[in-house]
Amino acid sequence: MSSKFDLPEWHAAIAGIISDGDDQQIATALIDAIDVVVNHEGTCLLAFHREARPEVLHHTLEPAGQRHYVERYLASPYLLDPLYQLAMRTNSAKLCRFRDELPDRFRSSGYYRQYCERTHLLDEMDYFAQVSQQTTITLVVGRRDRMFSRAELRRLELIEPTVQAGLHRIWSAWRERTGQVPQHDDVHRKLTQCFEHFGEGRLTDRERQISQLLLRGHSSKSVARELHIAPGTVMVHKRNLFAKLGISSQYQLFSMLIDELGKH
Known about the structure:
By secondary structure, this protein is α+β, with helices and mostly antiparallel strands. Helices cover 52% and strands 12% of the residues. It contains 12 helices and 5 strands. It has a 5-stranded antiparallel β-sheet with strand order 2-1-5-4-3, with helices on both faces. The mean pLDDT is 90.
């Protein structure tokens, strides 16, 4: 029985990846190769930087998805994105299934409800390529209608070396075409400082630490595990920080943060 890797479309896509095309042509060829391997409903290729806002290098989103996921996302919410956190990890994995890496209450978080839920992705596989000390390229492969099957996940794992090579080629070609090198970004710095200092002056250091984990989708039990303290202690801190901020829910906490980020 022939496999998908025997198809002419697969070999044509590989030829496109290794050809002398520009970054967009290589990215298109890479997506064509993934199209042969699995059915999906969209891809997005992002460059995550330690000292600057993310950049979108390529995507196959429809206009509405571009406005919502790309333009609104880059305005500040990326700071709460588990994908951003994964990309910025030292020695991050080269491939992961998004659902396997989420905080336990992520789908109840304000970030998920405002930004992720509207993308209607049921499943997502993410490839990571660290192209410098400051930058990790991340390719999102999304599925809206159903979960990836075991066979599809296996095929996505099999092509990981090919995807890695393609991502490195795209980054090199993108830099050659644009002449851009990621610089320190004042907006990113201000957004990061705003998040890190959110509640300062009203909350204790521990309360601010807990608020950051809550904003990223951790439950009280998960916060306790992360900070190595008792769940009951987390609940006391949570009640206190809510009272000090004059709120009664984590969604209100999220709204307060977004309002603060919007000032920067």
